[in-house]
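#lab-general

N.A. 3:47 PM
ok so I finally got the sequence cleaned up, no stray characters, all 130 residues accounted for. can someone with queue access submit it? mine expired

B.Y. 3:52 PM
send it over

N.A. 3:53 PM
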Amino acid sequence: FRTSAPIHASELDVKKLYTDLGIKDLIDLRSSEEMMLEGMGSPAFQGLSFCKYKQDPAVNRVVPDATSYIHGSSRSDILRVQIPVMEKRRYMWSILSRMKKRLVLQMAATALVDKQASRRMAMDKVNEGG
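B.Y. 4:20 PM
back already:
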């Protein structure tokens, strides 16, 4: 499942995510700066375990940063993972690579004039499962 802003989740939303749907991993694609600006006060983040990933040049891949791990309290079986910006780009590329080339070109051309409109085009396609 995909959500746009779990920081705005209500208690009812949280129950639906973790109890009704059984979500066990929350992948946070926000940068550290965005996380600091938006905060972590949402009920969606309360009591979760947390692990930040970082790029390890020795093995040329992303690995868990053991120094960032925090064991959760009330919902410790649910892990929130922060993916670094480099991996965010790779994630976005994997989404774009699955779209039809014509749509990707339309989004690129639209982005030259209106970035928000281009993002809406991409989100519409992602949200419809394509």
